[in-house]
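call fold target=Cytochrome P450 90B1-like
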Amino acid sequence: MALELLLVLSPAIIALILIFRFKSSSRTDGKSTKLPPGNLGWPLIGETISFMQPHSSASLGAFMAEHIAKYGRIFRTNLLGKATIVSADPEFNRFILQSEGRLFENSCPTSIKEIMGPWSMLALAGDAHKEMRSIAVNFMSNVKLRTFFLPDIEKQALEVLHSWEDRSTFSAQEEGKKFAFNLMVKHLMSLDPGMPETEQLRLEYHAFMKGMASIPLNLPGTAYRKALQSRAIILKIMGQKLEERIQKVNDKCEGLEEDDLLASVSRNTNLSKEQILDLILSMLFAGHETSSAAIALAIYFLESCPKAVQQLKEEHEEIARLKKERGETGLNWDDYKQMKFTHCVINETLRLGNIVKFLHRKAITDVQFKGYHIPCGWEVVPIISAAHLDPSIYDDPQRYNPWRWLQAISANLTKNSNVMSFSGGPRLCPGAELAKLEIAVFLHHLVRRYQWEVAEHDYPVSFPFLGFPKGLRIKVRLLQ
């Protein structure tokens, strides 16, 4: 009887504890500021389920729309059992990203840390993150993009595109993933398409990604458990490649590949094996997900904008014509920089597609902003897609309009504080330029070789990771 009474009263007790905690947190110790308005939601889970509901990536979703209408662009809630400030205020979001390490720090959910690893760039903060990020920045520097990456990006793009048969129908999302995956494993570990290790990695990575957006229940049969198992297999394959590199370094072998990341970190860092493997996995994740999603988004948006496709085609045909006159083969960095309208398309695709909807941060000191008090230790979730869809920033923001970027691109104004597709501040994605280069090269050959149409209705959805529910199936026709 006592046990039954305890079970009945437990939810009420937990709710009272949470309410007391939030009310206690609302006190500002004499400060004139106050917590943002908000709703705590259910005990423990708060409003997590509503917040994570899938919705069109070209919108903020019902949860955000309702809360902004009720509380304003900065409000408080309870996500994953933690007191959280959610911000759809572009100014506050820029402030959060630029204050990394001073007022806020990365606060990756525990489940993501377990799947990606404790030394993943997604999980690290402070000096440890700076060290890992510097390795990634050096590996994807402009010099290496020009010399090592660009020729192989074109090679991998052509291999994928040449496999498309005239009038065939297939998933554009999966083709984009194939292209980005092949490129990343090549430059991270010198693995080529078709190699047994490459194909095994591809299969395990697919299961791994399913677990990234799953409920973190480590029980038999769950996507989360399968993701952890796939992680172990992926690390085993990567570990074998790492051991080969270390052995070659120790033996001072001639011809050791210098242009893959495993070789570089084996020679030039004092990282442990665990640190190296988590770094490689996090770079595979970052390099694969952003580029593949952006390519699928570009195909999706362009299909409904024939005028943009035609202007793209004219731009790339002119580049190809001039190269033929000069007797050149293969794209080079100058060609890439001449793709003015292509960069407009890329910017607009990233803006409206919103590959990453939000980020996880935590206040490491009390913060005051616009009359609100953000207590030390509270979670902070900047909705970075909010700036992209703000009508006070972009005219008719729901419309796909690459020409809105033409003036800025023509003037070589590459920085826009309202574009947060690759995060910002000290945690700006080191692979941002690589992703844009991949998209540009892929589009160069796509528009010159094919026409396409969406074979069945589909649209990009935030899960919170972006994807197309039906895989974005398209039908292609080979141009004469």
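return ok
The chain has one domain: 2-478. Residues 1-32 have pLDDT under 50 and may be disordered.
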